[in-house]
Amino acid sequence: MEPNPERFPILSFVMARLHLNKPSIGDLPEAPFHDIEQPPPPAEELELVQRMPHLNHPDLISAMSSAISDVMHTRSILQTLGERPDHEAVDASRVRIAEIEAALSAQLEEIVRSPRPEGVDRLKWRAEQAEKEKECRAMAEREMIAYKAVIQLDEMHEAYEKLLKDAEDRLVKMYGSAADTEKGSVKEDLQVNEEVIGILQEGLVKCLERVDLSSRQLRFLPEAFGRLRGLVSLDVSKNQLEN
């Protein structure tokens, strides 16, 4: 039931966190620690997070979890129905169904070809023949139920495999979008920082008394501004400075 981590690495990672309510890799203690209820992550998870660090972001994991609700629902159903039948069982079921259908066809043909006895009303005879056909079909259907169930279970597992692939593709795209957004933020920071550095250099040369850095989406302020001689006023309002 569980997706193969080698074929579906991100999906496997997200489902493990969702199913077991695990913390992010980055939240695990650094010191040697063993907790039976919360064992350390396997090596493949650590390697995956090293390659894809945004998987540690709780908002991204939350969004990914919502995106695979169809997988979780199907997985729950298959857990109730059981493991995928082996190929031998499926092939044997198909052969048996074909045999039952062939036998039914022969029975129906025999019913159709049987002559109407003399003295029997035509309409009554047709009704009796129709009832015989109905009984034969019902008997054949009952006999095929178990074999059809095997085939249907196999088909559900086959569809589940496709569902896993589609879900992995969705998660890959989601991760790519998150990474691109992060790169965009870094690029914006670099552009803002270049402008701030230019102002800083001007202040060092001209001994500016007042510097206006408001509304520039600053995330941090270079410490060098604190060494500007003659600086009286520094406006950093309406930014995103962190304490």
Structure description:
This protein has 243 residues and is mainly α. It has three domains: 9-82 and 156-184, no CATH class; 87-153; 188-235, no CATH class. It is built from six helices and two strands; from the N terminus they run ααααααββ. A two-stranded parallel sheet has the order 1-2. α4 crosses α6 (122-206) and α5 packs antiparallel against α6 (122-206). The longest helix is centred in the last third of the chain and has 85 residues, at 122-206. It is rod-shaped, with a radius of gyration of 35 Å. It starts with 8 loop residues before the first helix and ends in an 8-residue tail after the last strand.
Proportion in helices: 55-70%
Global outline: rod-shaped
Enumerate the strands of the largest sheet in spatial order, edge to edge or round the barrel. Answer: 1-2
Structural class: mainly alpha
Strand count, sense and barrel status of the largest sheet are: 2 strands, parallel
Protein name: Outer arm dynein light chain 1 domain-containing protein
Organism: Dioscorea alata (Purple yam)
Could you name the key traits of this structure?
single chain; 243 residues; mainly alpha; 2% strand; rod-shaped; Outer arm dynein light chain 1 domain-containing protein
Strand and helix map with partners:
Blueprint: H1 9-20, H2 43-51, H3 58-67, H4 69-81, H5 87-113, H6 122-206, E1 210-212, E2 233-235
Parallel strand pairs: 1-2
In short:
This protein is an all-alpha fold and 243 residues long. Helix content is 64%, strand content 2%.
